[in-house]
Specification:
Strand order of the largest sheet: 3-4-2-1-14-13
Strand content: 25-35%
Radius of gyration: 23 Å
Number of strands: 14
Largest sheet: 6 strands, mixed
Distance between the termini: 9 Å
Helix content: 25-40%
């Protein structure tokens, strides 16, 4: 049996000091040192075997965080983990507290193809893997063919040529198997406004001349882009599942589990019994799907469906809530880890199962907490981690 952990970590704008990433936003050397300190400590606490990072502007800053986490981990091991000459060094507790480090891990970085100059930077993402990669990871952002989505009745179409942020696809060798991992960061709910030629800002950005319908249109653009990006990810996931590869998809979905974009990624839930349903080619009210067709349809849906690790944990633990963001008093989960049925214990062909799910969200506030001003350099997301045990091949 092989136990491994896989985590999603939105680091919130990781870049070195004195670099303007968004307009008028940068870190002083002191602020960057504080941020690196917090991130390294969080990475040390998580001690995950595979970590999907979001909001990475430069690979070097992330490498520095990992190096610092390793340094702290080595010091912690020296203090708390007995050497092999101690007769009690095999006790299980020491396996729990030992930090394994990332010296031999592989790091894949996916820069954003829309990344601009100072003040106009766009974040990419990264994947850190102790087991390494079975083959070079693949980056999906600039689409080789535009995604054109026509609407019925000649109502028009929607066209997308590039994702707002890359999707990183990697095949990871674990316990004698290869698991395909997708790391993503979908378009946020922040409105997308168009700036007229020659203008210094979009009209909808001028809050002294508030334009409610214009801002609503900006939200519509963001939602359309996010759902289209979700479909691109879904298409890549289905291709892997149909090729027989177990899949784990994780990242910042910028939406909850029941949002349309999340449901696009996970796939639809099968109807309880299709033998009750009127056939697609029905010629009378009695034309229903057969029992054999019900079995076939259900299997066709189930084999390409993903399952929320958070919800699997909530059912198993009787816990009723997990959250990864807090804003304006609203607590919700927009960071997700989704598993193919290969990791469901009740699926006859499963290769393993999730044993536990960890959430690291003690640092989150919605701005009303006394410590909020001092948390501004920490991540504005909680981190999530699935603990998965694989069976022997």
């Amino acid at each position: 049996m092989t136990l491994f952990t896989i985590a999603s970590f939105n680091v919130k704008n990781l870049i070195g000091a004195d670099q303007e990433y968004y307009r008028f936003q940068s870190y002083t050397p002191e602020e960057y040192a504080w941020k690196e300190d917090w991130l390294a400590d969080q990475l040390l606490t998580m001690d995950a075997d595979i970590v999907g990072f979001q909001e990475i502007f430069e690979a070097q800053a992330l490498s520095d965080v990992i190096t610092e986490a390793d340094r702290r981990g080595a010091l912690a091991n020296a203090d708390a983990v007995p050497s092999r000459d101690k007769r009690y060094h095999r006790r299980a507790i020491f396996d729990r507290i030992r930090f394994d480090g990332y010296a031999d891990a592989e790091l894949a970085f996916a820069p954003n193809t829309s990344d601009g100059g100072p003040g106009k930077r766009r974040p990419g993402l990264a994947l850190l893997s102790r087991p390494g990669f079975a083959e070079p990871p693949e980056v999906i952002q600039d689409l080789p063919e535009p995604l054109t989505i026509p609407f019925a009745d000649g109502a028009g179409d929607f066209r997308l040529t590039r994702l707002s942020r890359p999707i990183l696809k990697a095949r990871v060798p674990i316990g004698g198997r290869v698991v395909t991992v997708f790391n993503c960061h979908l378009k946020s709910k922040l409105g997308e406004y168009l700036r007229p030629d020659g203008a210094t800002f979009a009209p909808e950005a001028d809050l002294t001349n508030y334009d409610p319908t214009g801002r609503a249109l900006g939200s519509l653009r963001a939602a359309l882009r996010r759902m289209a990006e979700a479909w691109v990810l879904r298409d890549a996931i289905v291709a892997e599942l149909q090729s027989g590869h177990p899949v784990i998809a994780l990242g910042d979905f910028n939406d909850g589990e029941h949002a349309v974009s999340s449901e696009i990624i996970s796939g639809e839930v099968p109807f309880k019994n299709y033998a009750w349903m009127l056939r697609h080619d029905a010629e009378s009210p009695r034309d229903r799907y057969t029992d054999a067709e019900n079995t076939q349809i259900t299997e066709d849906i189930e084999r390409v469906r993903l399952h929320s690790a958070e919800k699997l944990f909530a059912r198993k633990s009787l816990r009723d809530m997990v959250y990864t963001t807090a804003f304006g008093g609203v607590y919700e989960s927009i960071d997700q880890i989704y598993l193919s049925r290969d990791f469901l214990a009740d699926f006859p062909g499963h290769i393993g199962e999730m044993e536990y799910f960890s959430t690291f969200n003690d640092h989150l506030t919605d701005g009303s907490h006394p410590e909020a001003p001092y948390n501004k350099l920490a991540s504005d997301h909680g981190q999530i981690m699935a603990h998965i045990r694989l069976k022997r091949p």
